[in-house]
Amino acid sequence: MIELSLGSFGSVALPDLSAQFLATPSSSEMARLDSFAIASGTSSLTLMERAGHAVALEACRLLDEAGGRPKASALILCGPGNNGGDGLVVARVLEERGYSVKALIINASRYSEECQVQASRVSFLYSRETDISSALSSPRITVSDNDIRALFADASLIVDALLGTGQQDAPRGEVATLVSLTQAEKRARNALKILAIDIPTGVNADTGRVYEPHIQADVTVAIELLKRGMMQFPARGACGSLVVASIGISDRSDVRYSLALGEHIPTLPRRALDAHKGSFGRVLIVGGSAAMPGASALAALGALRAGVALVTRTTRAGWLSPEIPPECMHALLSGELPHYEEGDSAAVLEQAARAQTIVIGPGLGRHPDTGKFVRRVLEGLSSMDTSLVIDADALFHCTREGLSIRGLRGVLTPHPGEAASMLGCSTLEVQDDRFASVEALQSRYGGVVLLKGAGTLIYDGTHGRIVPRGTPYLATGGSGDVLSGIIASCMSKEGLRDFDATVAGAYIHAVAGERASVASGGPIIARDIAWASASVIGELER
What we know:
Blueprint: E1 2-5, E2 11-14, H1 27-39, H2 44-65, E3 73-78, H3 82-96, E4 100-105, H4 113-120, E5 125-128, E6 141-143, H5 145-154, E7 157-161, H6 173-188, E8 193-197, E9 219-223, H7 235-239, E10 241-245, E11 257-259, E12 282-286, H8 293-305, E13 310-316, E14 329-333, H9 345-352, E15 357-360, H10 368-381, E16 387-390, H11 392-401, E17 409-412, H12 416-423, H13 427-432, H14 434-445, E18 448-451, E19 456-459, E20 464-467, H15 479-491, H16 498-520, H17 526-541
Helix pairs in contact: 2-3, 3-4, 8-15, 8-17, 9-10, 10-11, 15-16, 15-17, 16-17
């Protein structure tokens, strides 16, 4: 098992860092993987036994930390489905190993066949006294609400096996009651540990939404693979430390998203020993304005620190010059306007013809004349063999002018607010289902889409990546401008597809933010990210 510390994403333990364990399925994708494994000859009960034994190992670790046998005791909360069946296996294994354990199963009108089999193998099964008829035939000890509170109070560890990955709404009925009791007990006793099987109850495995009430786990043991919603917030916070337990499900063909870790971090080409500055691409930054000249300067700094040797920035002589890297060249546009206009497009396209990658948008401004300028530039680039990063105000103009980047080698990099404008919805709607949002953006505008935020998503219409790195201190002015420059640098490297270059750029930016924050002891500014990116790039090149 490889234990990783992933910045904002905390502790994640994976069997290894091969592509096999980096896939992050949705609930429906995981169901298909389960079905394929069963159809291939592994029974569902065998898979359940493997899952339960794997979770029991983690439960034993937590019980031993709480005092071990026979002092520490476990309470297993079991639902009526296969997640509950997993929990019953855990209960049986813990008892066989000498731990004090009780299993409490909810009353339901239907139980999965596998759950019923596992219930018949447990001799210490409890359920609430209720007038709701239960379809479970196995013997149980019925207990009052006061008795249940005593079960909670006696537990050193509570195992959440109530609901699995198919949750699409808030817990209801008896499940909601047990979730609320668990959370109340945790607030009363911080030493109590909570272990969730596969995903905490009240967490959506597809989107990362968290419902009320929900389980706040200390540890979640994900069966076979992390589910994609677990790697978005607020779900990531509800899962606690993550441990992936492999149970022998091998197929990954239907899984659309994977983590940008291990084998999925693109390797950057090594620098030849006899390289010269012309070997590392040329980037053109089209941005800045009289009001916001610093944005394009930060994009230029990001590109330079990420390894591009030749960076040019378009500007007017009359625009105030912020602190600009002296290594950056300037393409001076004529006129004295404080913004770009349609007539500037010819001079910009002339510069673009000499560049491998163009960044357009940082500090561009939102004047209507600038929208016409963006249209002309995109039209002109359609006949050039250049790659394009569209960010910030250029995204605004794409929306207002009804522009797409189909036919262009392009990457769009919206933050959630920009994505909401581009999709005609609210920022809350974007964040409620970031996977649906990034796919809708790609479908509408084309190209590769990077949706910024904790758990940055990259999608190209076929497959996607989740970047599980970063720090809250990346939320600082100019951070996105630096990201655009870093992505442009990666896109300028020979042999790297636009999708892989975008993944590499987002990973570099996130890890650089972490390192810059460690170096500063806390808050950072955008320039710190650019400077820290060089060490990450050096590692990827080596």
